[in-house]
Amino acid sequence: MARKLIDGLSKPAIYYDLELVEDFETLSQNATWVLENSIDKTIVIDEVQRYLPLFPQLRALIDRKREAGRFILLGSASPDFLQKSSESLAGRIAYHELSPILKSEAESAFIPQPTHWHRGGFPDALLAPDSGYWYQWQQNFIKTYVEQDLSAMGISTTIPLLNNFLRMISHLHGSLLNYSTLSNSLGMANATVKRYVEILEQAYLIRRLEPWFVNVSKRIVKSPKIYIRDSGNLHFLSNIRHYEDLITHPIAGASWEGYVIEQVIPLLDPAIRPYFYRTSNGAEMDLVLVDGITPVVSIEIKLSLAPALKRGSTESVADLKTKNNYVVTPNGGNVAVRPQWVHCNIHELIGHLRTLKLIAE
């Protein structure tokens, strides 16, 4: 994508990949000289986390010529990378998270929703010629992450235990995150489990969705919910090889919930924050979109084709006071099921959110 981007620039560009020995040596030995002599070019540095001492040198070069987009830095979001870049380039850097391919993007390539839901949004997995190839790709991806990337990010444990850790999280997908349960099941210290969860979140493998507190007088659930962000990763960890197996699997409902959430959140305007809502008396909402301190949209996610609302949903809306409320199912239909409630699918939901100006343009 970076190469495609620089092909369209109006000025020359240079691309360095720090996984290549020659590029690494060029920048590690002569970075200041090399980059100073390219002051009028756009410089793309891939796998930049492999040479963190570069950041202080970039700061000096940026200050000599302040121009947006002079440097495009690509790399994994390791804790060291984020810390060094924020310390050295404070006020000089903007971060952009590149999510897996979204349903709205897959539609333009005529990839059907069942395929996208089952396979997830990583390009090679999504475009696999068959389920066997998809499964092998997922296996290689998880193996690479477990054995290389995650250990480099600060997870120092045995590979079998880390594999068990990921599979435990897949079983908790869509549930409240209980660190003690994970700790006891894996025989790990509570503090270690918390740190590992934070690293997995920073690596964009999982999402912790925080609860919204609308009324302090109510007994509000305080724990976040945990999701594996890519549905393909989730289905591999759950050993679901085919879409036909997914729709009859016990995890199908939770998988659909996480899938819908991941199609919405990356599109939101940065000012809009996502939460869930749950109280001890049964009020519950899968996704609540909040503008500042005001809930503006409530979203109930159902795999069932019947858009019937439960008491917990109506009680949540009474608490949240949202006027725009949606039940999202695979088929949808944009049908009003009761006042201020619309039954829709993901595509229709995104259209409503765009009309409400909650989607970043």
UniProtKB/TrEMBL annotation:
InterPro entries: AAA_14 (IPR041682), DUF4143 (IPR025420). Residues 3-105 form the AAA domain. Residues 147-304 form the DUF4143 domain. It holds the Pfam family AAA_14. This is AAA+ ATPase domain-containing protein.
